[in-house]
Specification:
Strand content of chain B: under 5%
Oligomer: heterodimer
Number of helices of chain A: 11
CATH superfamily of the largest domain in chain A: P-loop containing nucleotide triphosphate hydrolases
Largest sheet of chain A: 6 strands, mixed
Strand content of chain A: 15-25%
Number of strands of chain A: 13
Number of helices of chain B: 12
Shape of chain A: elongated
Structural class of chain B: mainly alpha
Order of helices and strands of chain B: HHHHHHHHHHHH
Radius of gyration of chain A: 27 Å
Helix content of chain A: 25-40%
Chain lengths: ~375, ~260
């Protein structure tokens, strides 16, 4: 069991971790999630006694790590994959670690088998891929057969097979009653692996709950509703009707409406009563990832802005604007002849009357640019 | 608490299993012996061109150790790499997670590297002495002459303490590039320049390498150099004090700073 109480770490003026309190229970995989720079690795290092907390405490099995009797037999950790002297072979690296902890040498070959590095054990780790480095780091964590395991971003650099392998390995270790604390910035990965979540953003605790509770609390299901293209009035009418009956309506970029708070049949009934035809009414479940993104939106350290690419753009030929639906392959072939009117992609094979295709994309708004695609309803008539 | 013997064993495995150990220690031996042999041969051939004062204070033992000037740099590299690769590779976090008692980790590392440096240093000094004396011909000294054995063993100790000093500096700076940049420049350039300029000579005598090399002299004021204000072991003691200060500083940094 790992217990953090009011854990705080500051580097000069920058606060990496602030007043973090959580408990990691045995027998479960606890996912430690947060955007890059949220303080996950700092926390991991403090658990291992590598960094001294500025204030607060963190204990492993009731002791601060530096005072833990026989620490390497109780706690195994993968911190960063390449924390290995590149000139040393994998086997010799593990041998050093095993000797440090007083672990018998035959255990080295056992863990090499577990992580599947037996064949390359004699090679210098300098030539290892990131995935092999991760496996070597995991082997090091498993050496002492510890009850508590810490993995910092273990799936980084692993191929799909490797990811599945580590996922199953962690599940097996947890089922043996061990405490597993695994950090990741990939919520989608944690959704498949973890039982419990500790979410941090900007060094502060944002959630400490089971995965099921997290989804229930933070994800919202909604319906996508679309009225016929080009019928602005209908859209406004439907929005009003839905809002009046307690729905939360948000317009989406492609002209559809995102409706929360009303069941699908009710939306259909309301649309019928309002005399609005629907082209689409579909249920959507916000994924764990979306819930997480929404939650950590304000807590991201590094955010990208739109790449303006000014001065870099080639005037594009007739390119279909990004509208309605993503062009399905083979469904609406893009116009080939230069100067020919572009084909409106998606949905209807033939553009209905009164729904003229937009003119060729002007040079200042080619495909791939960040300029917003014209809405369907705004298409010239 | 990891048993001290386990940590020592692990440090020995660490030092044994990287090729830089082999290369730097071999380079120390070869450079010291080869340059010493070359200069011994040259001295033998040009002995008659030396001034009277230089002939009177001719110190064949010291002459054969002239290669130490270069050989010590290889020992510096060895000492620095033993410590700094822990930081540059990130291995330090693995090591300290396994041995949370930092003193045990640090002492083991220093002890293992020091013992290895001592063995290589003594081997180097004896090889260098005998090769050099063979090439000095009529002007050579014998190992049984007064103070010669002390100077030869002293040369081996000198290389050992240079290594310890370098380990302390690397533990304080925690960076290969910084440590090597500083120590190389210091031992190869700054120290000799300061010793060469009359204004700074009196201060430079107390620098680790200048003071320590007194132990390799058999004839006081060898080759018409100035009289030193300390004896051979006195100078060596000054060097040891430098090394101790560097190692204590290194431990203070390791203890206090986050890994």
């Amino acid at each position: 069991m790992i217990e953090a109480r009011g854990l705080t770490k500051t580097y000069g003026a920058k606060t990496a971790v602030y007043n973090l309190s959580f408990t990691v229970q045995p027998g479960l995989i606890t996912g430690f999630v947060g955007p890059n720079g949220a303080g996950k690795s700092t926390t991991m290092r403090m658990i291992l006694g590598l960094d001294e907390p500025s204030s607060g405490t963190v204990t492993v099995g009731g002791h601060p790590y530096r005072k833990l009797p026989n620490a390497p037999r109780q706690v195994g950790a993968l911190l960063d994959a390449k924390a290995v002297h590149g000139g040393r072979s994998a086997r010799n690296h593990l041998r050093c670690v095993a000797q440090l902890s007083g672990i018998p040498q035959r255990r080295v070959d056992e863990v090499l088998d577990v992580v599947g590095l037996r064949e390359v054990a004699g090679r210098r780790s300098k030539g290892f891929s990131l995935g092999m480095g991760q496996r070597l780091g995991i082997a090091g964590a498993l050496l002492g057969d510890p009850q508590i395991l810490l993995f910092d971003e273990p799936v980084n650099g692993l191929d799909p097979e490797g990811i599945l392998w580590i996922r199953n390995l962690m599940k097996k270790l947890a089922s043996e009653g061990r405490t597993i604390f695994v950090s990741s910035h990939l919520m989608s990965e944690m959704a498949l692996t973890a039982d419990h979540l500790v979410v941090i953003g900007r060094g502060q605790l944002m959630a400490d709950m089971s995965v099921r509770d997290f989804i229930n609390t933070h994800s919202a299901s909604f319906a996508r509703v679309r009225v016929p293209d080009g019928e602005q009035g209908q859209r406004a009418k439907l929005t009003a009707a839905l809002t009046e009956h307690g729905g939360q309506v948000q317009p989406e970029d492609d002209g559809a409406l995102r409706v929360a708070g009303l069941p699908l049949p009710r939306i259909s009934d309301l649309a019928h009563d309002a005399g609005v035809r629907l082209w689409e009414l579909s249920p959507h479940e916000a994924s764990l990832e979306e819930a997480y993104m929404r939650m950590t939106q304000g807590a991201v350290d590094f955010r990208s802005t739109v790449d303006q690419r000014s001065g870099l753009q080639q005037p594009a030929g007739p390119v279909p604007p990004q509208g309605y639906a993503a062009p399905a392959p083979g469904y609406a072939p893009p116009a080939a002849a230069p100067g020919a009117p572009p084909v409106q992609p998606g949905y209807a094979p033939a553009a209905p009357q009164g729904y003229a295709p937009p003119p060729p994309a002007p040079p200042h708004a080619p495909a791939g640019a960040a300029a917003p695609a014209p809405r369907e309803g705004e298409a010239p008539r | 608490m990891a048993a001290p013997s386990a940590v020592l064993k692990s440090e020995w495995t660490k030092v044994r299993t990287v090729s830089s150990t082999m290369w730097t220690l071999a380079a120390a031996l070869v450079l010291t012996a080869a340059v010493g042999a070359l200069l011994s041969g040259v001295m033998n051939a040009t002995y008659d061109d030396l001034s009277r004062a230089e002939q009177l204070t001719f110190d064949p033992t010291l002459v054969s150790f002239f290669g130490m000037m270069l050989g010590q740099l290889a020992m510096v590299v060895f000492g620095v790499l033993v410590v700094s690769t822990e930081y540059s590779s990130g291995m330090i976090r693995t090591s300290l997670a396994a041995v949370p008692q930092r003193a045990a980790f640090y002492v083991s590392k220093v002890v293992v590297a020091t013992l290895l440096a001592l063995v290589v240093g003594l081997l180097t000094s004896f090889v260098t002495f005998f090769v050099g004396q063979a090439l000095l011909g009529d002007h050579s000294a014998s190992i049984t002459d007064d103070n010669v054995l002390r100077a030869v063993i002293g040369a081996g100790l000198y290389m050992t303490v240079i290594t310890m000093f370098s380990m302390g500096v690397a533990a304080m700076l925690r960076s290969t590039v910084l440590s090597l940049g500083l120590l190389m420049a210091f031992f190869f350039l700054i120290s000799s320049i300061l010793a060469g300029v009359p204004a700074t000579r009196d201060v430079a005598r107390y620098l680790p390498d200048q003071a320590g090399s007194a132990v390799m002299q058999v004839v006081p004021g060898a080759l018409d150099s100035d009289k030193l204000p300390y004896g051979p072991w006195g100078g060596f003691g000054i060097m040891c004090a430098w090394a101790a200060a560097a190692l204590i500083g290194g431990y203070a940094v390791l203890k206090k700073r986050d890994a």
